[in-house]
Specification:
This protein is of the alpha/beta class. 29% of the residues lie in helices and 31% in strands.
């Protein structure tokens, strides 16, 4: 951290958004992070407010024991921060995360709406810049089940084979991914313009998904660990998959391939399959052994030797000329296997040969598109 770096105070530093924000800000040597959370002494908070160059106000209450905590933890704390900053006359910019529920008449919504009004009033009185984000459901790593969002609860339960109850599978959730939220907040902290609508700062990338759709995707992620067949990671599926994996228990990080085929030549197993992008497999060959001697009409492959030495040989069907390519794990080289060429790979080294295969389509026992023919 630079001795003259900007001091950024983050309230709610131990929360879901706070941890993700700090994990990014800490990578910037020009920023000194001041942390405040529920256990922070009020005098310490006052001191940090006085020396802050920017305040990111993330602290809030959304699961209180009684309704009064909504007001003390949301609008009350925001009012206290605004008052102290006005007294300092430092014109410190403030960023606050609110909620789309501030438009409702619930106690939570009212407390958030009051907090927004306090902050906009602070801006008028001080001339300081303010950024108020009315966030929808936020999902991502380090979120808490049964607290932050339904997505966190679903991820936690499904990864532990705990049943979940959904009253309305057709209900649509509006969502933002934590990394997109953090990118926007970081831009504001660093003075990069952020998009605003009707005075509110917005995260530009959002998702809309039905509860049933979210559950189905999460179940497919867990099922894929048994079948090796993964769904396309497009749209919300990509950040949702990252979120899901973050909920795995450490002793559940690893899993075995669905099937390993072994014989005297070596072994073969499928590593990763996804409809639309084909599949990855891992193959081994013992010294002197040959794998392959077949060709494909449409299927194409790529070979990458990662251990040992080999010769990959090709011959176009109906022709006699043979082309051979020497490869070894110490010098990575990706070899394309075109359609219409019979091909094989021979272990020419003294130890085990290990190579990775990518095929552009999933293997189908009904239509294997694989025909024996010696090179």
């Amino acid at each position: 951290m630079s001795a003259n770096g900007r001091k950024v105070l983050v309230t709610g530093s131990e929360g879901f958004i706070g941890k993700n924000l700090i994990s990014k800000l800490m990578l910037d040597e020009e920023i000194e992070i001041l942390k405040a959370d529920i256990d922070t002494d009020i005098k310490e908070l006052d001191e940090m407010l006085l020396k802050s160059d920017f305040v990111v106000h993330l602290a809030g209450v959304n699961r209180p024991k009684d309704a009064e905590e909504f007001y003390s933890g949301n609008s009350g704390l925001t009012g206290y921060i605004a008052e102290k900053l006005l007294e300092s006359k430092n014109r410190t910019p403030v960023l606050m995360t609110s909620s789309i529920h501030s438009d409702t008449d619930s106690d939570y919504g009212k407390s958030k709406r009051l907090a927004e009004e306090i902050l906009f009033d602070y801006s008028k009185k001080s001339g300081a810049g303010v950024f108020v984000y009315k966030l929808p459901n936020v999902f991502g790593k380090w979120s808490r089940p049964n607290y932050n969002s339904a997505v966190a609860t679903f991820c936690y339960n499904i990864s532990r084979e705990i049943p979940i109850d959904i009253d309305d599978r057709e209900k649509t959730l509006n969502l933002v991914y934590i990394d997109d939220v953090i990118d926007s907040i970081t831009d504001a902290v660093k003075g990069v313009p952020v998009k605003k609508e009707a005075g509110y700062s917005v995260v530009e990338k959002t998702y809309a998904a039905k509860l049933g759709e979210i559950e189905n995707l999460l179940i497919s992620f867990e099922t894929a660990r048994k079948t090796n067949i993964f769904p396309k990671l497009e749209g919300i599926a990509k950040p949702l998959y990252s979120t899901y994996l973050s909920f795995l228990e450490p002793d559940n990080f690893s899993y075995e391939p669905s099937k390993i085929n072994s014989d005297s030549r070596g072994s073969f197993f499928e590593f990763f399959k996804t409809d639309g992008f084909g599949q990855f497999s891992v193959c081994t060959a013992n010294p002197g052994e040959i794998r392959g001697n077949h060709w494909h009409h449409t299927k194409v492959e790529k070979f990458l030797v990662v251990e040992g030495e080999a010769v990959i040989s090709f011959r176009k069907v109906f022709e006699d000329e043979i082309t051979s390519i020497e490869v070894k794990g110490e010098v990575p080289e990706i070899v394309d296997i075109p359609a219409g060429y019979t091909h094989n790979i021979k272990n020419t080294g003294d130890g085990r040969l290990t190579f990775v295969i990518w095929a552009n389509e999933l293997f189908s026992p009904e239509k294997p598109d694989t025909f024996y023919l010696e090179v």
